[in-house]
Write a structure and sequence with these properties.
This protein has a four-stranded mixed sheet. It has a single domain, classed as Double Stranded RNA Binding Domain. The protein is 41% helix and 31% strand. The chain is built from five helices and four strands; from the N terminus they run ααβαβββαα.
């Protein structure tokens, strides 16, 4: 009985110093070396998600960076038909992107944009655009690629 208690006690005490096999810092593994601040609105959440995915596996010389993005969208109707309905719509995402290092020094402060044009086939254009995703992920992914490429260029010059 004492032997069993001793074994259980040894296993219990010994188990206190055991760490999980895949133990990792979840905040670092989510964003790599770049922390992406929260971006307002639904499209901002999607953009942040794309940026976190893009930066997850990129390492920048063991330094930490902070990315601050302010996203805005502009919708401009053109090619208006004789009945007053738009036949084409231009949609532009503008992102003011600021990259800081761990000392809060601003390394990059740029406006980056991506745009697309939609054709509207009939008078119920808003319904058509919403069905096809007026604020679609393809445009946000394009914006993500442009932001990542700009950051890579800035950080490659820093190292």
């Amino acid at each position: 009985m004492r032997a069993r208690l001793a074994i259980v006690l040894i296993l219990f005490v010994g188990g206190c110093s055991v760490s999980p096999l895949y133990n990792c810092d979840t905040t670092r593994s989510k964003t790599g070396d770049i922390y992406v601040d929260v971006i307002a609105e639904r499209e901002g959440q999607k953009l942040r998600s794309h940026l976190v995915d893009a930066f997850r596996d990129i390492k920048f010389a063991k330094k930490k960076y902070r990315l601050i993005v302010k996203l805005s969208g502009i919708e401009r109707q053109f090619a208006i038909s004789s009945d007053g309905n738009a036949k084409r719509v231009l949609f532009v995402y503008n992102a003011n992107v600021m990259l800081q290092n761990s000392d809060r020094t601003i390394l990059m402060n740029r406006n980056i944009s991506a745009s697309t044009v939609y054709n509207i086939s009939h008078a119920h254009g808003e319904v058509t655009l919403s069905l096809y995703g007026r604020h679609n992920d393809a445009l946000l992914k394009e914006l993500t690629i442009r932001i990542v490429e700009n950051i890579k260029m800035v950080l490659s010059n820093e190292n």
